[in-house]
Task: structure prediction
Amino acid sequence: MPDFICPVCGKLLSKNGKMYFCSSGHNFDISKKGYVNLLMSSAKGRHGDDKMMVRARRDFLNKGYYDRLSQALCDMVIKYSEKSVSIIDCGCGECKYTMDILNKLKNAGICPDISGIDISKEALYYGAGRSKDVRLAVASSAKLPFESCCADMVICIFSPFVPEEFGRVLKPGGKIIKAYPLERHLWELKKLIYEKPYENKRENDEQEGFEILEREEVKYMISLDSNEDIENLFKMTPYYYKTGFEDQKKAEAAQCLDVSLEFGITVYEKI
Result:
């Protein structure tokens, strides 16, 4: 079971009512929504996705546009799970995929133990509202608040990929399931926004200390028939924050758009 550890001293955290505490006396309040903040950072500025981005993604995903990706991820998780499985979802966001995986595992007769972390408090505010069956903490994938060799699987969906840290928390033979955008993912949205759109760069997915077990591509088109859906798709991506007012107005004016969705999924095994 991937229990939380203290971000100050590294000792195991125990839960007592509305608080986590360690034997060294460090304690961390559990929010009213049910998540705990274990992010140790004095850096100023925005941490993770803000409220607008999280709401846009929640509303867009709740309409099922990415469900084919979610189903493919669930199939992969089930394929590489035993009768019980401990999972850390790194960059879980508002937990749409997390809950899909949890429910599919239960339906398949597999006993899941899932913890999720995200650097965004706004994302976990909504994520914690989906279910109390997932332990959630504000934390960074660069310093996961878990003991070494505690998890069977790490899930990384459109989030920073930190193989050294993922390898630390995985048991020997543990799996990473990574989802990422392919070269022409959201190509039509890019063409709408930018005068000169560029394809996403395909990076080498080989990683030291891991063997690639499987790769899969999920490609399909969706039709967006409302400005609300187009705006939500735009605002849930990094593109929104990288464009000026004039480019943002292009999305505000669009009423329909056919968009390519192209995802890659890679499964790694710790060796």
User: Anything to note?
Assistant: Residues 67-79 form the longest helix (13 residues).
